[in-house]
Amino acid sequence: MDALHIDVDIAQTELVVETNVTTTEKTIEIDIGSSDYQVYRGETDVVPMAWEDQTLQTANKVVRRDIHIAKVPKWETSNQQGGYTVYIADNA
Question: Where are the domains of the chain?
Answer without folding.
Answer: 1-35, 37-92
